Amino acid sequence: MSTTAYIFGIVSSGLVVVAVFELLRRRQVRERHAIWWVIASLFALLVSVFPSLLEALAKAVGVAAPINLGFFVTIVILFLLSVQHGAEFTNLEDKTRALAEQSAFLRQRVESLERRLDGGAAQPQNEQSRQPDTRADAEAPDAGVHADARSERENHDEPHHEAH
Fold first, then answer.
1. Which one of 90, 103, 130, 159 is separated from 153 by 20 to 30 angstroms, measured CA to CA?
2. Is the pLDDT of residue 112 over 80?
3. What's the whole-model pTM score?
4. Which residues 6+ apart lie within 8 Å of 73 measured at CB?
5. What span, in angstroms and rounded, lies between the C-alpha atoms of 54 and 35?
6. Is 24 buried (19+), middle (13-18) or exposed (0-12) by CB count in 10 A?
7. In the chain, where are the structural domains located?
8. What is the tens place of the pLDDT at every residue in 118-160?
9. How far, in Å, are 39, 49, 51, 72, 114 from residue 12 at the CA level?
10. Calpha distance 39→65 (Å, rounded)
11. Which backbone phi and psi does 50 adopt, to 5 degrees?
């Protein structure tokens, strides 16, 4: 290997190491996302400083050309990055779906309460006094959504006892 290629390899991999750590320092990349980039950049720096190390590793695992081992390690690291990002994406998608459902329940609850307030003046006194328990509504976002329907069913399902 020529001296120019050797120096270029060291400078390039050194810049990648510095860039990854700078992104970590500025908190533009979280540690759990940057771990594979740190490993890859340190591996590149190590191989750049000690090119005979890649040749020895290639010979030890039976790879004819050391550069093929470098490409293989790079592909494995990129595959692991892809799997990690896929898992993160799935987790975020689940959280987004849950938040959207919660938002829909809360929007429905607000609209129900607004309708109740708008129509409150026209309702008889006993209708206005039948407010759901706000503590139960705060515990489960969808608990208050169906409170009106439950109270209507309970009023209709209760047996009417007549005094004789």
1. 103
2. yes
3. 0.55
4. 43
5. 21
6. middle
7. 81-154
8. 986 555 445 444 455 444 444 444 444 444 444 444 444 444 4
9. 15, 11, 14, 19, 62
10. 22
11. -125, 75
